[in-house]
Amino acid sequence: MNTLEAIAGRRSIRSFKDKPVPRDLTERVLAATVQAPSGKNQQPWRFVIVEGDKRVEMVRILRESIAKRKEEGADPGSSEWSANVMEQAPVTVFVFNGEAAESNSPGEGGNVVDVQSIGGAIQTMLLAAHDLGLGTLWICDVFYAYRELQAWLGRREQMVAAVSIGYADEAPDPRPRRPWQEVTEWVSG
Question: Which residues of the chain have pLDDT under 70?
Fold first, then answer.
């Protein structure tokens, strides 16, 4: 598969087969991920992998936190759906900004360049997994349980996102995209 085919063929997967991902395959995804570019070669990304029986505890924490936020009157958005996806996926990678001290969410501060670099790493992760026959879902709904998951994972760095990985149990059609011509403006001499 070439790069342009990988970009065009990648889909967000929300249904995974009940089939474990071999550790060496996850390691290959991570080896590709750390090849992503980063501002000043800072490589701010840090990863925590949740798999096996620990997934049950992870999803329990997420669901309890969502319920608490709902009781407080917060709109849970798509977080309950994301919890279902994370429950199915055999691997979830939590992505942290190792350069951001303490526990600010990305919207609360931190180095924008590092967060942008981490976004590039996540995209690289998605494409690498796709190339290796795996499906992925980039999840930001973990913010409904930001502090709870951070504490459970024993991390103090800024949590940026999670990515669930597994064998796809669906083949979604491409989502609509705006043509590049619609979102591009040329400035030239």
Answer: 101-110
